[in-house]
Amino acid sequence: MLVLLGGLMAGFEAHYGYAPDENEVVRRSVALDEATSAGLVGLGAPGELVGFYAVVGEVSLPDVGSGWFIDSAEDVVAFARDGVRPAGVSGALDGGIVVFGTDGGGGLLAIAGVDGRVYRLREGAFVKTMYEVETAGLEVLAADFPGFLRYLLDQVHAAAAPLPPTA
């Protein structure tokens, strides 16, 4: 992914007319502590997400599509604990969720405990600890977290395709 990001940055300014933001995948600099790991598991995070956070600190891709942002493990736990992000979803889907990022356009990236799928949640209402969403605001991005990472890599691939200069 880092090589693809380099390709995206190489032709970005010539194509769009402005410099790119900081697009990065930040490797974890310190080991994932037991409290954070336990917090993720307590929220219902699947093992693949916990394993991801053992290696990756966070992801910031503001210039890929409308943007993709994967929060740090510490932020995922703190945001859920402090009520900044919902812990459940109701309406088109019912059950617990782990919100692990955003899409840069106001959507939340979440893993549903009921089926393990990764969803983009949009156009809903955040009421107390629940995100109320209808079918139009619920998009399945992948069957699981590894599938979401493949989806995200495809998005980076598409964004890094050779960009012709604009006139």
Question: Can you put this structure into words, describing what you see?
Answer:
By secondary structure, this protein is α+β, with helices and mostly antiparallel strands. The protein contains 5 helices and 10 strands; from the N terminus they run H-E-H-H-E-E-H-E-E-E-E-E-E-E-H. The protein has helices at 2-16, 34-43, 47-55, 73-81, 145-160; strands at 24-27, 56-61, 68-70, 88-91, 95-102, 108-112, 118-121, 125-127, 130-133, 138-142. Strands 1, 2, 3, 4, 5, 6, 7, 8, 9 and 10 form a 10-stranded mixed β-sheet that branches. Strand 5 (95-102) and strand 6 form a beta hairpin. The relative contact order is 0.17. The mean pLDDT is 89.
Topology:
Elements: H1 2-16, E1 24-27, H2 34-43, H3 47-55, E2 56-61, E3 68-70, H4 73-81, E4 88-91, E5 95-102, E6 108-112, E7 118-121, E8 125-127, E9 130-133, E10 138-142, H5 145-160
Parallel strand pairs: 4-9
Antiparallel strand pairs: 1-2, 2-3, 3-5, 4-5, 5-6, 6-7, 7-10, 8-9
Helix pairs in contact: 1-5, 2-4
Major sheet summary line: 10 strands, mixed
Distance between the termini: 29 Å
Number of strands: 10
Strand content: 25-35%
Low-confidence stretches: none
Alpha-beta classification:
alpha+beta
Helical stretch count? 5
Q: How do you describe this structure in short?
A:
The protein is α+β, with helices and mostly antiparallel strands. The chain has helices at residues 2-16, 34-43, 47-55, 73-81, 145-160; strands at residues 24-27, 56-61, 68-70, 88-91, 95-102, 108-112, 118-121, 125-127, 130-133, 138-142.
